[in-house]
Amino acid sequence: MSAADTPPQPARPRLHPVVKAAGWVSFLTDLGSEMIYPLLPEFITVKLGASTATFGVIEGFAEGTPAVVRYFSGTWADVVRDRKWLVLAGYSLSSAAKPFIALAQITPVVFILRVLDKIGKGIRTAPRDAIVADYSEGMQGRAFGYQRAMDHAGAVGGGLACYVLLRWLGLDITWVIGLSVIPGLLTILVIALFVHDRPGREVKPAGKASPGDDPGPIPLGRTYRSYLVAATLFALANSSDAFLLLRAKEMGMEVILMPLAWAVLHVVKTLTSLAGGILSDRVGRRPVLLFGWLLYAAVYGSFAEFTGVSAAWALFAVYGVFFGATEGVAKAFVADFIPRGARGRAFGLLGMVEGLMLIPTSIFTGWLWNCTGSGHIPLLVNAAFAVAAAAWLILFVRPEKKELPAK
Description:
- By secondary structure, the protein is an all-alpha fold.
- About 75% of the residues lie in helices and about 0% in strands.
- The chain has 16 helices and no strands.
- It has helices spanning about 15-35, 40-45, 50-65, 65-80, 85-95, 105-135, 140-170, 175-180, 180-195, 220-235, 240-250, 260-285, 285-305, 310-335, 345-370, 375-395.
- The longest helix has 30 residues, at about 345-370.
- The chain is globular, with a radius of gyration of 21 Å.
- The model is unreliable at about 205-210, about 215 and about 400-405 (pLDDT under 50).
């Protein structure tokens, strides 16, 4: 058959403009966040003089306390008429809280602002993910992969901006943190103009459900409950990534280079997130997710065992592959076996459980770090929990054939 006789291939469907807008929201938000995040360990433990244990408490509660908000936000997302306003409220709170960290003189103020920032994340995440899922039926791996890729691209920009402001312009850490207000304002503008809910979406009348009620009779199912156990085990492995920055400092990396190392991490995240989502659309979510969790265990074990700045740079790069194989894929995995009317609740409950586990995990990691004087043992413990989560995923999380993504 000649090329002229070859039937034309159907064009790959394009991502909906709302999905693309949500990606730009993630880009701008992480641009601001990652101007701050690589500097937090230095700001808290050196500038404010806090111990590693105190740092663990701050990061644990910052990541974990808002998890309860995620569940209620997810429940609201299934019953409110327009989920855009939940998304806008969450991003607005985060954008307002982060720059004020620059003015903090004592650790309790940083604690409050970090928690407020993450409460905003808790409000916005489930409704945003539900909107993305609704606008991307049949290509959710690609859509969530795109969203994560844009998120990580923003983080690359944030790390590079942080380095330029510190090294080339000679600004103090506090000024760099304060300038994060600019991408925060742009985030709010993009949501207001370009993000909207799916028209004609069926919702339960508000009078029949309150935020604490089950928004409908749709069960979340056996696969979801089994996956929730695996996700909980993995959350116990997943202490704050800021501990890796502390470990990099132990390995000899200069503080001023940490934003660049963080940018390298996010470059790899960006390059692998979309690929990970597309791969999961083709071969299934579970194999890709399993690979990511085992890679996480290997990276944390290597951070614990290796020394030297070169090893730290390499491990940050490899760590990025883990995110590409898991973040968007895990959300698409849940979306595969949860009906539309319960996705907000499913994402919210999952986020609540994962987030709550971050409190004891980060506190324990900081305490153990303080007791042992280094990150060697705490990071090995994290790696062990990741292996346990992968084992559960292999043995007990088996979606029925009808729940698997279409090939």
